[in-house]
TrEMBL record:
Single GO cellular component term: plasma membrane protein complex
Record's keyword terms, sorted: Cell membrane, Membrane, Transmembrane, Transmembrane helix
Lineage of the species this protein comes from: Bacteria, Pseudomonadati, Pseudomonadota, Gammaproteobacteria, Chromatiales
Membrane topology summary: Multi-pass membrane protein
Name this protein carries in UniProt: ABC transporter permease
Family the UniProt entry places it in: Belongs to the ABC-4 integral membrane protein family. LolC/E subfamily.
């Protein structure tokens, strides 16, 4: 690029600071959203990896057990009989302090030192205080500060269904401390006593050679099994992959909208410099130099905007990581991450993406500039004429992209990437139709306003003349609104389905559950005592048990009777003799996600590991289940006892008699629960808590929806500002002919309303289509469940209000600038 051209470009952008700022802001916001989401996603996973490494140290295997864990006697056998020295037992659970949930980890400090010396070294006194002082725990300094705890102070904590008094013995220090936030360390005996898990361990961490691992596997009886440590991180990545990919796709929409805005900025810059570019061509600047010059400007804008976007993305990432972590913690597994881990490769990818998108968006304006030659006609007018001539081709290209996108969506695949690719292609194709749609809307409004005043007709005519430059700004706003509508419809449909599912599956009036997780059990005889209460009609016994099989991990829900299940509501598919099969020794229901992932249907079999060996269970039906994480298998209690033995009761569903005194019965249940270390909850409380978690889960999508709208708003503002500059002389003529500043404001206001109306109307079918893709394609592939799509009128009304409000707000400053224009100054060059 020649120096003359570079100086001309620099001078133009310096003399147009508002356009420059808005162009940079468009790029920065798009990059910031993408980088923030990626940083939050990767930080959450890296935090889990570092926490796993910090706890396990050099361990490369984990010894896991059945529903109750690993019998403690087996740890003794590992050390004494099998001579495995590098083995460390662990007991895991949850601890609630000051409204926050911590991961309680019981360790044997001396054994832990052989695998994780950095961890033992980070415990004050090498963990001696943990072993000698009762009811003591240790936390990182940051965790303790966040909870308002100090060393040596006693504090109440909720653990194992009871409120216990614990003491903070010291702070966990060392280089691994940041990865251990949210973890409370206790001596293993203390943790067992707090959680009520005497004689059982959660796992045993081991450092083994391949030969030792093979020999140990031959010794292990079912259900004990050996698992590589890497499998834990791999499973966490697999479980959260769909969630993280959904967030990534939403963030890429911001980058796509940013591309539209870069295109608009470059188009306006080329049009405003049309006479200058033509003059440079007359002075010997070649077409290739013009082309390279415009593309170079786009690259420079992208680099500067990306730099600002990286800084903004890091700041935004610190906020999003809390939302991502909270969602993963609610849905999948315990996770506490309070910092953002910066990845240079990820930041570099953000810059490369910005430059690539900016270059792609700048190619059409650069080709337009390449064709400019000295002429006497108005370049904006010529640009609009050329846009009209290319309109049929643009419509065909849009139709082709939409068709290809739909083909991608209909591919017989379960992969998410083709689905998102098809969605993006369809949105880009629809965006190419937007200038024609804007012209159609303006034409229809002009027919309706045929008898309106001059100002209205002038505004509508102006809109029709400038669709080539404002069309993509309308497309950007329409796509952002469509994303808000589509995601809003999906969330509303999802919430409605979850509410129905909760009411269908939670048939009891009260639920009594053992505290301490799925492995905890209620005391023997409590079912009989609950049944004897005056207001109780019947109880249903249940137990949740994690199990394994050749196809992965599952959770069995073993029910004492099928009375807690509504077959007409919860079952999606079933055999004709469904209940006969279910009540047999090997009949099961599988959840919809399990059936989708493994391609199972009623009548098929699913193999599961049992203490008696691997057994193929017959599938009686497929049930709806919207709980994330491992797949659910529903089994009758007799069948469970037949294959796993009597493992106690984990929870009771309590049905009251008609007309029973609910307050008296609830009081009696609370008394029983307090004496048994259990917790009792009313049906309504469980539903309320579940919906609270649901709403928290989608908090991050609400944030991303507003960020998308923010990017689109900037684009609309940039387009209106550029249009104001382009029309400055026309408005000066109008002022000279007697039009008042207030009338100029009315003209510009009418234009902005038309742009907002066109964007809002276009967003409705786009949003409905996006919602259909999310519910019928994305959700089944990502999570395995299906949703009945709902059409909430509030979402559509809100989209129109936001569209009109955003366009009006974006038009305020340009309208003010146009109203203040001086006719003499604007017409000075005429």
């Amino acid at each position: 690029m020649s120096r003359l051209l570079a100086r001309a470009g620099l001078r133009y952008w310096l003399r147009s600071p508002t356009q420059l700022a808005l162009a940079l802001l468009s790029v920065a916001l798009g990059v910031a959203v993408v980088v923030a989401v990626q940083l939050a996603n990767e930080s959450a996973l890296k935090g889990f990896r570092l926490s796993t490494q910090a706890l396990g140290g050099a361990a490369n295997y984990r010894l896991l057990g059945g529903p109750r864990g690993v019998p403690q006697a087996w740890y003794v056998r590992l050390r004494v009989d099998l001579g495995i020295e590098r083995a460390a037992p662990r007991v895991d659970g949850n601890l609630r302090v000051n409204g926050q949930t911590l991961q309680l980890v019981g360790i044997a400090p001396l054994a832990q030192a052989a695998l994780a010396p950095h961890l033992s070294g980070g415990l004050p006194g090498g963990g001696l205080k943990l072993m000698t002082l009762p009811q003591g725990i240790m936390l990182t300094r940051a965790t303790a500060a966040g909870l308002g705890l100090a060393v040596g102070r006693n504090f109440p904590a909720r653990v194992g269904g009871r409120t216990r008094t614990l003491r903070l013995l010291g702070y966990v220090s060392g280089p691994q401390a940041p990865a251990l936030q949210g973890v409370a360390f206790a001596d293993i005996a203390t943790a067992q006593e707090l959680l009520g898990r005497t004689r059982h361990l959660s796992e045993v961490d081991l450092k083994l050679t391949s030969a030792q691992a093979a020999a140990l596997r031959r010794e292990l009886p079912a259900p004990l099994h050996l698992e590589p440590v890497d499998a834990l991180v791999g499973e966490a990545e697999r479980m959260t992959r769909a969630f993280r990919l959904n967030l990534t796709a939403m963030s890429l929409l911001a980058l796509l909208i940013g591309a539209y805005l870069v295109y608009n900025a470059m188009v306006f810059s080329v049009l405003r410099r049309g006479p200058l570019i033509a003059l440079l061509r007359a002075q010997g600047v070649t077409r290739a130099e013009i082309l390279r010059g415009v593309l170079a400007e786009a690259v420079v804008l992208a680099l500067i905007g990306a730099g600002a976007g990286l800084a903004l993305g890091i700041v935004l990432g610190h906020e999003l990581v809390h939302l991502v972590t909270r969602t993963i913690d609610d849905l999948y597994f315990a996770l506490t991450v309070s910092r953002v881990y910066l990845d240079p490769w990820l930041l570099a990818a953000g810059v490369v993406a910005a430059v690539g998108v900016a270059l792609a968006a700048a190619v059409p304006p650069a080709l337009e500039a390449n064709r400019l030659v000295p002429r006497g006609r108005s370049e904006p007018l010529l640009a609009e004429l050329r846009a009209r001539q290319r309109e049929p081709w643009r419509l065909l290209a849009g139709g082709a992209l939409v068709s290809v996108g739909l083909a991608f969506l209909w591919l017989p695949s379960r992969a998410l990437v083709p689905a998102f690719a098809g969605l993006f292609l369809a949105l880009i194709g629809a965006s190419l139709w937007m200038p024609s749609w804007l012209r159609l809307v303006a034409w229809l409004l002009s027919l309706l306003a045929a008898r309106a005043g001059v100002r209205t007709r002038l505004a509508l005519s102006d809109v029709r003349r400038s669709v080539g430059r404002t069309g993509l700004a309308v497309a950007a706003l329409a796509v952002a609104l469509a994303a808000a509508i589509g995601v809003g419809m999906m969330v509303s449909s999802f919430r409605g389905a979850v509410v129905d599912w909760l009411h269908q599956t939670l048939r009891g009036d009260y639920y009594l559950a053992a505290a301490g997780g799925d492995s905890a059990r209620l005391p023997p005889g409590i079912a009989a005592r609950v049944s004897a209460l005056p207001g109780v009609e019947r109880v249903t016994r249940a137990v949740h048990v994690p199990v394994r099989g050749p196809h992965g991990r599952f959770v069995i829900l073993a029910l004492g009777t099928p009375s807690g299940v509504d077959p007409a509501a919860s079952i999606k598919q079933a055999l004709p003799d469904v209940w006969h099969v279910f009540e047999a020794d090997d009949g099961i229901f599988v959840s919809e996600p399990v059936a989708y992932r493994l391609g199972l249907h009623p009548g098929d079999t699913l193999q599961l590991d049992t203490p008696q060996g691997v057994h193929a269970f017959r599938i009686a039906g497929v049930i709806r289940d919207y709980a994330a994480g491992r797949g659910l298998i529903l089994m009758s209690r007799p069948a469970y006892v037949r294959w796993w033995g009597n493992d106690g009761i984990g929870s009771l569903a309590i049905f009251l008699k008609p007309g029973a005194d609910r307050a008296a019965t609830a009081s009696a249940l609370r008394t029983l629960a307090a004496a048994s270390g259990a917790r009792v909850r009313a049906n309504s409380a469980i539903v309320s808590r579940s919906l609270h978690i649901f709403d928290q889960t989608f908090a991050i999508t609400r944030v991303l929806r507003w960020l998308l709208l923010g990017v689109a708003f900037v684009g609309m503002l940039a387009s209106l500002m550029a249009l104001a500059l382009e029309r400055s002389r026309e408005h000066a003529v109008l002022r000279a002919l007697g039009m008042t500043p207030l009338e100029i404001l009315a003209v510009v206001g009418t234009q902005t309303v038309v742009l907002g109306l066109a964007a809002g109307l276009a967003s409705l079918p786009l949003g409905i289509g996006l919602a259909w893709v999310l519910t019928e394609v994305i959700n089944p592939r990502a999570f395995g469940w299906t949703l009945p799509l709902q059409y909430p009128p509030g979402e559509f009304a809100a989209a129109m209000v936001v569209a009109l409000s955003a366009s009006l707000l974006a038009g305020l400053y340009p309208a003010w600038c146009m109203a203040r224009i001086s006719p003499a100054q604007a017409l000075r060059a005429e």
